[in-house]
Amino acid sequence: MYLGIDLGTSSMKCLLIGEEQELIKSVSSEEIPLTNLHTGWSEQDPRQWIKALDQCLLKLKKDIKLNQIKSISFSGHMHGATCIDKNNEVLRPCMMWNDTRSHQACKEIMSDSSVLDISGNIAMAGFTAPKVLWLKSNEQKIFDQIHKVLLPKDYLRLYLTGEYFSDLSDASGTYWLDVGHRKWSSVLLEASSMRLDQMPALCEGTEQTGILKKEIAEQYGFDASCKVYGGAGDNAAAAVGLGLYEEGDASLSLGTSGVIFGSTKSFLNNYDDAIHSFCHCLPDTWHLMSVMLSCTSNVNWFINTFDSSINEITEKLSKVLSSKEEINNAPYFLPYLTGERTPINDPHARASFHQMGIDSDRTSLIYALIEGISFGLNDNYQALSKTGIKLENIYAIGGGSKNDSWLKLLASILNRNLSLTDASEAMAAYGAARIAFMGFNNLKPKESLSAPKVIKTIERDPKLSDLLNERFQNWKNFYIKEE
Predict the structure, then answer these.
(1) 304 and 416 share a domain?
(2) Which of 12, 296, 363, 365 pairs as cysteine with 29 (C-beta 3.0–4.6 A)?
(3) How far apart are CA 84 and CA 157, in angstroms?
(4) Do 371 and 270 reside in the same domain of the chain?
């Protein structure tokens, strides 16, 4: 058996697969708490990750003999700055991917324009390097004690193996990696006052990074020779779970954030529109990724604020989609609850309704909500397309992909058919388990990954496409960046 450990923002999943890559068992931890001490701050105590891992392993142990597990790998939320001292003690809570306090540090890092071509990306407040530079200005005593900076899943690796490693897909999101050459960059490190010796060793996702520590193996009943492999950032892991590594195949994830992910054979970029240009977790492969910070979190906000429900949103969205007049008269919604990355890169942007009239009712607001999120994803899609990446097959995944009316709206806005798979929401954990399987058996992607099975195709509506394109052009005019 092979174990995938997925450290999510709100909980941890552990998933086991067998020799045919079949699912054997999946378990989840209790909720992992976040703290938000100030506006724009988002932190998590790494000790909570260890607690969550313990919960999952004890659940697995009830039904599975853990000594049958041959190898382990990871998936995890990216960018988090986990700072440790020489004794491997955590110096402060991890600054998370959605922490935006370091926006001024981004400007300082990019004062040398050469960093753009090395990193392939704009320095964003969510990335790791600006967070650490913020520490230098605001928590100097902490900064001076930093021995290593680890990404969240790589702190789990340290706990399990005692080794310092990071795979190239996750390391791409630090702003310390020369993405094209797949190595740490001295220029980028110096730009945030860091040194090479403070970085973990780099590895491909399928590369071995040690074995379990003796005390960990004994504590849970693992075999002492259980191997641990590099793993991946969450979106790269989900792509492996889906079997996406060939250029032309892409995923559209409708989760808390909205992500369009596409593999490439070479290093491409479009940093003008805040496209993420990262290494894939598979050798000699890269990927491009657009990120919309608030996707289904807009839906959750509406449900909680207006005492709504998924059923109401689905019903009223379907009703409006059947009426050209109702679409034309609907207000507009900007979905920037927590700022935005692609394509505007504005951590201060906020959500808003526009052009509401006396006739605007609950139904029209619900339609505007879903349409606005979809327009944001189309903004992402258009920015991604400017790189020249092939986007031939787009697979819709995530919680939002269960809503056929929303997918019809999206397909019509993107002017592209969308494919549905039988993918579960544990796809990142499944991808991590597949990485453990590939690494242990020394398999290449073409030997172990196949394209996902399409269970349904959502076709675009040409008439709806024309109407929505006109509204999209209007929608684009409502956002104004404050200087």
Answers:
(1) yes
(2) 12
(3) 14
(4) yes
Q: Are residues 249 and 226 in the same domain?
A: no
Q: Do residues 220 and 250 both lie within one domain?
A: no
Same domain, 260 and 130: no
Do 218 and 356 lie in one domain? The reply is no
Q: Residue 173: which residues within 8 A CB-CB, separation 6 or more?
A: 78, 79, 127, 128, 151, 233, 276, 278
- The answer as to whether 437 is a domain residue is no
**Is 92 part of any domain?**
yes
> Given a cut of 80, is residue 423 above it in pLDDT?
no
Q: Which domain holds residue 262?
A: 243-421+453-483
Angle between helices 404-414 and 462-475 (to 10 degrees): 80
**137-167: burial string, b at 16+ Cβ within 10 Å, e else:** eeeeeebeebbbbbbbbbbbbbebbebbbbb
Predicted TM-score (pTM) of this structure: 0.90
Among the listed residues 266, 172, 236, 253, the one whose alpha carbon sits nearest the alpha carbon of residue 428: 236
Question: Which among 417, 414, 321 has a CA at the least distance from the CA of 370?
Answer: 321
Q: Binning pLDDT at 50, 70 and 90, where does residue 426 land?
A: confident
Mean pLDDT of 160-181: 97
At 424 the pLDDT is: 65
Judge if 221 and 254 occupy the same domain. no
The CATH number of residue 389's host domain is 3.30.420.40
Asked whether residue 389 carries a pLDDT value surpassing 80, the answer given is: yes
Q: 458 - beta bridge partners?
A: 418
Specify whether the CB–CB gap between 52 and 29 falls below 8 A.
yes
Cα separation, 347 vs 124, in Å, equals: 9
Both 94 and 145 in one domain: the answer is yes
CB 248 within 8 A of CB 395: no
Beta bridge partners of 71: 2, 227
What's the chain's average pLDDT? 94
Residue 300 lies in a domain: yes
For 29-71, write each residue's pLDDT tens digit.
999 999 988 988 999 999 999 999 999 999 999 999 999 999 9
Is residue 422 classed exposed, middle or buried when 0-12, 13-18 and 19+ CB atoms within 10 A define those classes? exposed
